[in-house]
Structures are given as structure tokens and as C-alpha cells.
Design goal:
With about 280 residues, this protein is α+β, with helices and mostly antiparallel strands. It folds into 3 domains: about 1-85, Helix Hairpins (Orthogonal Bundle); about 125-170, SH3 type barrels; about 175-255, Alpha-Beta Plaits (2-Layer Sandwich). About 55% of the residues lie in helices and about 20% in strands. The chain has helices spanning about 1-50, 55-80, 85-100, 105-120, 160-165, 190-205, 240-255, 270-280; strands at about 125-130, 135-140, 145-150, 155-160, 165-170, 175-185, 205-210, 215-220, 225-235. Its main location: membrane. InterPro entries: LSM_dom_sf, MS_channel_1st, MS_channel_C, MSC_TM_helix, MscS_archaea/bacteria_type, MscS_beta-dom_sf, MscS_channel_2nd, MscS_channel_C_sf. Keywords: Cell membrane, Membrane, Transmembrane, Transmembrane helix.
């Protein structure tokens, strides 16, 4: 019995001695391969960014390249342990099919990420509006896209939902048109009000001179004459213009005596009828 146990132990020891170098080399392949995959994917990403001038595409390509290189490293390490490559591929194929069936939503997000990167609807730094959510694109990852909202919140959107939703890229073009409407009373000087508006929008540095600013009557309302100012600004100055220019117009109108009307109700009482109505109101 003891001789049999010693024989088994000797065989295990021989197997361990033969297998240990392969195990150590496989571990080294995994460690070195991991860092090499990280470095190579980084340099490949830089090359892609330099070639395409698109940081978003480079970042996405970096993630894809790292995963692909890591899979290659794992296959190499397993084959070094004596596992046949054909067997590894068969196992990966079977596992891939099982994973695809169980993670179909994640795979649709992956496909959505590829579509977003290839079609380039937007890039990092663009201000977009997706399904009512507005934010600056922080990153496009394999399965999701990260947005930073104007009030500095982080929104994580699945790539598949972005592909399926209408996308408004606010920063796609360098300039944007703005329409601002200012109401003045019917008793105010219309031509004077137009001149004030023309001077303000001509002198303000945010307003672009080309295309030229247009000032005119937009509507004759119930209690006001509505003046329309149509002008162009850089996309990044849109919100600043929306806040600052109406304030300048209000101050200028106040200074020049241009009345900005508000809703009010005028009641006129006929004198002949009031002599009969007032006693009734008093209870006489």
C-alpha cells in the first residue's frame, strides 16, 4: 500500500516538475501580455486620433483593441499549457453563443456603440440632446455613453437607446441663429425702439455681423407691438446671448423711455349710467 502511494506521489511530482515551467510561462504571458495590450492599445489609439482627428473614435478603438489583444494573450497562455487552439476556439464559440443569448441587450449596446463611432453623429465635447436629455459628451464607451448635464450631473445612457432616439447635436455647426422678441407699447416710438435694438446688437461682441442682424415688427398684439430681432452667434455663446442681451435691451428701453407693456385691464364707466348704478351698489 505504501509503495503504491509513493508511486502515485512520484508520478504527481514528475507531472508537476514537467508542468510547472509551462504554468510559470503561462502566468508570465498573462502578466506581460496584459501590460503589452494596455500599451499597444494606447499607442494604436493615439495613431487613430492623429489620423482621424477624432478623439471619440480613438478612445472607442482603444477599448476594442485592448479587449481583442487580451483575448489573444489568454489564448496564447492556454495553448502554452497544452490546451489545443482548436479546442479553445470551439469553447470560445460555444461560450460566445451562450453569452450572446443571455446578454443580447448588452450586445445591442455594443453594436450601438460601434454605430455611433462609425457614423460619428457626435464626438467628445459636443453638446447634444437625446430623448429630452441635454449634456456635453464626456465619453463613448463599449456599452454606454456618458453625458455631463449643464448643472454638472453625470448621465449614463445605453448606446442602443441613443441609436434608436432622435439626436440633436447643438455644437455640430459653429454658429446658431437666435430669435428674440421684445414687446413695446403702442404709444412708444416704434422707429426709436428699432434704432435702439439695432445699435445694441451691432455693438455687442457676441453678435456676429455676418449674416446681418434683422430687426422688424413681428406681430401687432392685443397690448403690444412685438419687435423681432433675428441674429447669429457662435454655438458656444448661445446661452450667454440669451441671458445678457435681453437685459441690455431692458436697461436701454428704460433709459430712452420705451415702455414695455404688461397685461392690464381698462374699465370705462359711462357717466349717464353711473348715476343710476351707484345708488344700487350702495343699497339705496
Amino acid at each position: 500500500m505504501e509503495a503504491r502511494i509513493m508511486l502515485i506521489l512520484d508520478k504527481m511530482l514528475d507531472w508537476l516538475v514537467d508542468f510547472l515551467p509551462n504554468l510559470i510561462s503561462a502566468i508570465l504571458i498573462l502578466i506581460v501580455g496584459f501590460y503589452l495590450a494596455k500599451i499597444l492599445s494606447k499607442y494604436l489609439s493615439k495613431a487613430v486620433i492623429k489620423a482621424t482627428k477624432d478623439e471619440t473614435f480613438g478612445s472607442f478603438f482603444k477599448n476594442v483593441a485592448f479587449v481583442a489583444l487580451l483575448i489573444l494573450v489568454i489564448i496564447t497562455a492556454l495553448s502554452n499549457l497544452g490546451v489545443k487552439t482548436t479546442s479553445i476556439i470551439a469553447v470560445l464559440g460555444t461560450a460566445g453563443l451562450a453569452i450572446a443569448l443571455s446578454l443580447k441587450d448588452s450586445l445591442s449596446n455594443l453594436a450601438g456603440g460601434i454605430i455611433l463611432v462609425v457614423l460619428r453623429h457626435f464626438k467628445k465635447g459636443d453638446l447634444i440632446n437625446v430623448a429630452g436629455i441635454m449634456g456635453i459628451v464626456e465619453s463613448i464607451n463599449l456599452f454606454h455613453t456618458k453625458l455631463i448635464t449643464p448643472d454638472n450631473q453625470v448621465v449614463i445612457l445605453p448606446n442602443s437607446s441613443i441609436v434608436a432616439a432622435p439626436i440633436t447635436n447643438i455644437y455640430a455647426n459653429r454658429t446658431r441663429r437666435m430669435d428674440l422678441i421684445f414687446g413695446i407699447s403702442y404709444t412708444s416710438d416704434l422707429q426709436k425702439a428699432k434704432t435702439i435694438l439695432e445699435e445694441i446688437f451691432k455693438e455687442d461682441a457676441i453678435v456676429l455681423q455676418e449674416p446681418p442682424t434683422v430687426v422688424g415688427v413681428n406681430n401687432l398684439g392685443a397690448s403690444s407691438v412685438d419687435l423681432l430681432v433675428r441674429f447669429w452667434v457662435k454655438s458656444e455663446d448661445y446661452f450667454s446671448a440669451k441671458i445678457n442681451l435681453p437685459q441690455k435691451v431692458k436697461l436701454a428701453f428704460d433709459k430712452q423711455g420705451i415702455e414695455i407693456p404688461y397685461n392690464k385691464l381698462d374699465i370705462n364707466i359711462n357717466n349717464a349710467q353711473s348715476s343710476q348704478v351707484l345708488p344700487l351698489l350702495k343699497g339705496e
